[in-house]
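Obj.: predict assembly geometry.
Materials: sequence records (below).
Method: joint structure prediction, all chains together.
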Amino acid sequence: MACGEDKEQDPRIQGIAASIRVVPDFPKKGIMFQDITTLLLDPKAFKNTVDLFVERYSGKNISVVAGIEARGFIFGPPIALAIGAKFVPLRKPRKLPGEVISEKYVLEYGTDCLEMHVGAIQPCDRALVVDDLVATGGTLRAAMNLLERAGAEVVECACVIELPELKGRERLNGKPLYVLMESR
Amino acid sequence: MASEGGEDHRLPRIASAIRVIPDFPKPGIMFQDITTLLLDHEAFRDTIDMFVERYRDKRITVVAGIEARGFIFGPPIALAIGCKFVPMRKPKKLPGEVISEEYSLEYGTDIMEMHVGAVQPGDRALVIDDLIATGGTLSAAIRLLERVGAEVVECACVIELPELQGSQRLGGKPLFVLVKAAAA
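Observations (raw structure tokens):
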């Protein structure tokens, strides 16, 4: 089960952590999968999750929230709507219909690719990157690269859950990472 | 792009924020791209508000959003109404025990999955996607929800392609859309 930050933990975090289900051996043996779908079944926990991010990012002049397909599409838009920012979906290859820029990233075996629409981002944009979970940081790093290539400033990456043993935090090129909880 | 008659003053901006991409994913298709709607904060906000206003007093207990663009519109609606959000996903994405429903594509079939236990008998469900074309995907979602004993109250999409008659394939369930567009 997930545990939150030790000091000054917001009282809402415990309920959020408790609502996340761990599914063993998914997608393969040995992996303890952090399943946020049970959080989405708890309206209070889901609202608290969004509120914690909105409270952090309101008033920071964030002009764009970039959400990573597909679970970043669940958390990103409510945050964008609440803080008055654009929402930009970062997608697997060949899903976005218009002209795109692509960024390759490394998987455990092989590579994958993340795409963003040309024209979605302007050079003055201040961006937040959102996903449900950060593991190795490869996907977040690819997202940041796309945004920076389009001229945006990545202000922070934000996830519900971090798996600290996988050291994703160190792969974000010095950009800060904010998470609600860690899981071992 | 035409919007509903008797028209809400927010609809023209919503309709004009949607970009049409010719010949995607193949020649002859006019693809309705909602990513430009998501870049217009006021239009995105208005889109969500119009659904929330319609459903807030209808005792909806679950919003089911279809992967992946239903994940963008469904959660903000669920959060505003205070009900559960359930993702309806492509195969092998959901980590827990699932029920599956096969549906027809133009060539071949695909499968939609939902977590066991997410929806209970007696749940009143809203099904959300960005667009309805032939209605195949929506009708698969309806079947999944009904198999676990939920009542599907309505299907809601931003865009309908009326020529493809998807509204006829929803098992008699009503459909609500904000804008109607040509398929080709």
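Conclusions so far: The domain at 61-182 of chain A is CATH 3.40.50.2020 (Rossmann fold).
To do: check interface contacts against the pulldown list.
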